[in-house]
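W.,

You were right to be curious about this one. When I first looked at the sequence I had no strong expectations either way, so I just let the prediction run and decided to look at it fresh. Below is the sequence, 300 residues in total, followed by the output.
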Amino acid sequence: MAEKQNMEAVMEKANVLIEALPYIQRFNRKIIVVKYGGSAMVDEELKKHVIQDVTLLKLVGFKPIIVHGGGKEISKWVNKVGMEPVFVNGLRKTDEATMEIAEMVLNKVNKSLVQLVQELGVLAVGVSGKDGGLLKVEKKLSNGEDIGFVGEITEVNPKILYDLLEKDFLPIVAPIGMDENYQSYNINADDAACAIARAVSAEKLAFLTDIEGVYKDPQDPDTLISELTVSEARDLITDGFIGGGMLPKLNNCIDAIENGVSRVHILDGRIAHCLLLEIFTNRGIGTAILGDKEEKYFNE
């Protein structure tokens, strides 16, 4: 009896691998941008799972690029030095002192992720948007209000990323950019990931968040939408179903699809190995957003 159960368990593992095969074939040598943020960056166990996922993607032939945030860590260090974080319309106001802390913290986070990837046997290189002119920005205003050194991306030069990918490194990007006067600016990590995914025509852009995905009704967990076309996403926004932090995220997704990214995924980073479950299984676990002409993997 025990032997039969063992055999069934082994066969189940084989079935899982076979289910992943067409996805591995389809995305071999394709670029996937992973925006890494939220609880998955704070919880050490979850952090380990995310890095394992991305490393596995690299080892089976994908070309991943990680773009990370660090908002919670920046707030922690701003408090540590006795400053109060200030938010205007939900965006962090970044004065000169806060900018200095933000850059130090994001570089610290960046190198800790490089370390985690390299512990798993894959060579990673951490860069910020300042390196190689990767992210050029201008000052971002929030409803006309000056919020300090917060940047709006005006141009992406992905040459440094292509060079790293070609030499088989895994690039890890901190969202800091410079304006035309070489002044440093903090950039929203979602915006940075979206702009980079567009610039490299990524096959996939995955957002790791603290929500399960896109809901038709945020109050009803049964209304999670597994796959969503750009037109359907626009309709949800127009009909008032999308609000709060999901609105700019969904607009970023639409923007990415309309600028050459094949598929965007919104995933719950609090679920262990959410990236592998979404990419390598037929049903997936988050919300995939695709172009109107793209074929859905899963039909309700």
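Here's what jumped out at me. The chain is about 40% helix and 25% strand. And, maybe more interesting for your project: The chain has a mean pLDDT of 87.

Coffee later to discuss?

I.
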